[in-house]
């Protein structure tokens, strides 16, 4: 039968010794006082019913002190730096390892100084040419000084976010939309990074910007198709330029080779002409003493040699008759000269007789220079 069920002599009991009809909670102060008295009696410091002795108080203080000392130990991780506050004011910075602080007096704030943190920034921004573009950027940074990171500004992360948004809007506002979307993306990234560092430098927040990633920008959805076409046209332009440069690199060596060949041919022709002229000069220098010794004979010999050279290359000769005659003599040298074939191709006559007469072509001056005097017997025989 349970202790609180009927049939236990009408006395309901509970664990605290109270009757079942009046179950009030125990007095905690009384319980604690009884515990201290019993603890002191065990230690021999008092008689039952007396006050707590000084030895018991010392013991309690020592236990509390030990607990306070033990609670002050803490550990700073390898990637962290600790900032100690004493009564809410900066006291010192601590390095990684096992440390101790005065509980209820000092407060330790660990700060991760090795991990790279990421801060996104995005929004619709107005470009220099008054177009609206959606720009997104991701700033990567880490904490370099834990004390400055906590106390230089109210919230370092929030301040960095505002500075990033300000720098990005400034750079985009001084850049055209075409550059933001296509070829000027790297310049926008570098300018934003530089502007951001200049903005946060006076605040000395203990933050180092590691990298700035400029994510793909895009125009508003209403004009996206038109900008896609423009970007495609620019890509085609760049492709054509690369093809033209490749063609230029292919053609230029050939052209340079041709130029070099023509220069060498011109140089060879120059040397040939110079050597030929030098030979002519030498020949005339050798001929000069002979001419001075016998001018008439030398002149006649030169004339005959020259005419021999000329006639050796001709197969037709036109002989002009004296003034007043309309006739013209044709000498077929290609048939008369030995070693010439009768079927050899004929050269066109110097003056076609079928179109013009001898009187129209020959003047007295030309007849006196180009004619060869003929005897009457030579005319009939075809000789001169």
CATH topology of the largest domain: Tetrahydropterin Synthase, Chain A
Q: Which CATH class of the largest domain?
A: Alpha Beta
The fraction of residues in strands falls at 15-25%
Strand neighbour order, sheet with most strands: 3-2-5
Rounded to the nearest angstrom, the radius of gyration is: 61 Å
Shape: rod-shaped
Order of H and E elements: HHEEEEEEEHHHHEHHEEHHHH
Task: Break the fold down into its secondary structure elements and pairings.
Elements: H1 28-42, H2 54-71, E1 73-76, E2 80-86, E3 89-94, E4 97-100, E5 106-112, E6 117-126, E7 132-143, H3 146-151, H4 156-173, H5 177-181, H6 185-200, E8 207-214, H7 224-293, H8 295-311, E9 316-320, E10 328-332, H9 333-336, H10 358-361, H11 364-370, H12 376-381
Antiparallel strand pairs: 1-4, 2-3, 2-5, 6-7, 7-8, 9-10
